[in-house]
Amino acid sequence: MVPELEKSKSSKKSRKSRKKMLLIFNPRSGMQNFPTLFFKVVDKFTEAGFLVTAYPTQAPGEVKQLVANYAGGYDYLVCSGGDGTIGEAIGALLNLEKRPAFGLIPAGTVNDFAQSLGIPNDILTAVDIIINSAPNALDIGRFGDRHFSYVAAFGMFTDVSYATPQNTKNLLGKLAYFLEGVKRVGSIKSSRCEFTLDGEVVSGNFVLGIVGNGRSIASIRLPAEMGVQMDDGLFEVILIQLPKTLKDHQEIISSLFTQELFTQEIRTHLLTIRKAKKIKFTSDEPIAWTLDGDFGGEYTEVNIENIRHALEVITPGSGV
Question: DSSP class of residue 72?
Answer without folding.
Answer: G
